[in-house]
Amino acid sequence: MAEAEYPAVIGVVAAGKLLGMGRTKAYRLAKTGRFPCPVLRIGSRYAVPVRGVRALLGYRDTHECREHWKG
To answer: How many CB atoms lie within 10 A of CB 56?
Structure first.
């Protein structure tokens, strides 16, 4: 699967789960600007660029990321 097939952004809850936090904490950190990677505010929604989550988790290439997304 090519890198372009991954979503560019994911929800703050999904990003929080990947980082080991629950829904409430993810929203609280996003709202206060303390989420551990960049968060975009789009209207009333929060979106987290996948690139930021991958960098935070230490992925250096698409193979490592692909294995993680497979579960």
So the answer is: 16
Q: pTM for the complete prediction?
A: 0.76
Q: How far apart are CA 41 and CA 22, in angstroms?
A: 19
Cα–Cα distance between 42 and 66 in angstroms, integer? 27
Contact 1, 69 (CB under 8 A): no
Contacts 24+ apart (CB under 8 A), 5-9: 6/50, 6/65, 6/69, 7/50, 8/49, 8/50, 8/51, 9/40, 9/47, 9/48, 9/49, 9/50
**Cα separations in angstroms, 25 against 35, 47, 48, 61, 62:** 9, 15, 15, 29, 28
Mean pLDDT score, 50-57: 92
Q: What are phi and psi of 9, to 5 degrees?
A: -135, 155
